[in-house]
Each structure stands twice: as structure tokens, then as C-alpha cells.
């Protein structure tokens, strides 16, 4: 049975999205690119992740992340593996610890069956993960565009440099 | 005066203080986006008006900055401290960081703490209300300058 979050839970998720998840998702992508020296995720990957986060249940999303993590990526795409490895850790930590201890999102569990608690946990995780991934996708896009601009700039500079060197050569 | 009226009054007052900044952002938008993609700013306005989260506005600006090269244009001719930043980055920085002092004034005047979730939600709502007003001012100024430019071209 599908569990619907309460209005109070939704409001709390919006608050967390603005005050915690937005910052953490941006930092996660920046750290991935700037400190781990990985490339931002290509648009095709990031759009796939966003579609699943927006449409699927949490189990499906988690399964997708694990599948991407465990795929046998070629050496040129090891950054993607690193990305999904880190993302899986974040989501698991969120589900098993932060949801209850930090975010205080789970309602009173008294009188609820284990499956009811689990359903509630997954419904909330779907919403939290969606928020986190939405922020992460926006930041990744920004870094991707930045990298593309830099690549174009470098290419133009090398073209100008090449022409200049060419002229020197003809003068000599 | 009830609490909601007080909030509206304080937000409107601070939006007035920010009016010149919104005008400058509107001018930067004209320089960067020109008249070709008016819907991008209308969409931004629609998102700001309809969302419950400030981060939805920032994410939209990030997505536009990533997708549209126009949003990555600086406006060095304006000669302001932040006009050498790309338009999208300048706008987002302003809405995210540049309003902190204005927001603090509102929170202090209305005695809204940062302790309980209810306080935090109210602070966030006020931030969003201020963002809406500034975006409205910016878009009006953008539309005005774009139409002014169009009518000048027609006269010539």
C-alpha cells in the first residue's frame, strides 16, 4: 500500500530542501569535480537519473543507483562509477540514520506494523532523494557548462596561438 | 495590524530598498538575453510565484545558466562590483546571498527567531516573498527596456 506523507512532513521536507539538501547537493557535486578531479556527469546520465528520481518509487531509484554503481564501466567512464558510489552512500546514510535521527521525519511509530513503518520511510525517502537529486542536477549542469566554455576558450586560444606561431614560421 | 499585514509591509519596504539593484539586474538581462528570449524571464517569474521553496528559484537559474549561453554573459559596461559576473550567477548570488542584510532587518523587526521549525519556515517564506518582489521589479524593468529599444528601432 502506498503511504502518503502528511502536510507537516511535506512542509518539513521543503524546509530541509532549502536549508540542508540544496547546500549539501551543491557541495557534493563541487567536491566531486574540484577535489576528486572528476568530470561532471554527462547530460544523458544526469537526465536519466532525474527522470527516475521524479517518476519512480524509492526502491526503483535506489536499485538504479546501485546498478549504475556496479556496472562494468570502461576506464574512460570511471568518473560515473565514482559518482554513483558516492551517491549511494549519501542515500543510504539518509535512509538509515538521518531520516529519523537528524530530520525527525518519521511520525510516531507506536502501534504501527514493521511494513507500515517501512512504507512510510520509503515514501519520505523518495521525496528527499528527489529534492537532493534535483539540486545536484542543477549544480552539475552549471559545472558542465563551465567546463564546456573553458574547453571552447582553450581551443580558440590554441587556434590563435597556432596562427601566431605559423606567422612566425613564415617570417623566418 | 495583523501579523500577515506586518510581513507584507516589511517585505515591500525592503523590496523598495532593493529597487535600484533590481533595475540594474533588469538592465543586465536586456544586455544578456535581449528581446529574443523573453519567455525565459517570464518562466522565472512564474516559478518564483508558484513555488514553496527558494531552492526551486535558484535551481531554475542554474539550469538556465547551464543551458543558455546568454545567461553566462557579463555586463562589464555597467561598472558595478558584480556586473562582470555572468548574468545568471549575478542574479543567483544576489537572491541567495545579497539579500541577507535585508532579510535580517525584516526578521529583527518582526522578531522571528531561527530556533523552531515554525520560525525557520516563516523565515524561508519571507525570503521567497522578497525574491518574488525583486524578480517582478527586474522583469518589469527588462520588459520596459526591451520595448523601449524596440520602439527606438522602429522610429529609426
Number of domains of chain B: 1
* Structural class by secondary-structure content of chain B: mainly alpha
Class by helix and strand content of chain A? mainly alpha
Strand content of chain A: under 5%
- Amino-to-carboxy terminus distance of chain A: 81 Å
Output the helix-strand order of chain A.
HHHHH
Number of domains of chain A: 1
Helix fraction of chain A, binned, reads over 70%
CA distance, first residue to last residue of chain B: 53 Å
Over all CA atoms, what is the radius of gyration of chain B?
A: 16 Å
The most extensive interface between chains reads: A-B, 19 and 16 residues
Described by strand count, sense and barrel closure, the largest sheet of chain A is: none
pLDDT below 50 for ≥5 consecutive residues: which ranges of chain B?
Answer: none
Give the % helix of chain B. over 70%
SSE sequence of chain B, one letter per element: HHHHHHH
Oligomer: heterodimer
- β content of chain B, as a range? under 5%
Which consecutive residue ranges of chain A, at least 5 long each, have pLDDT under 50?
A: none
Brief overview:
The complex is a heterodimer of chains A (172) and B (156). With 172 residues, chain A is mainly alpha-helical. Chain A contains five helices and no strands.
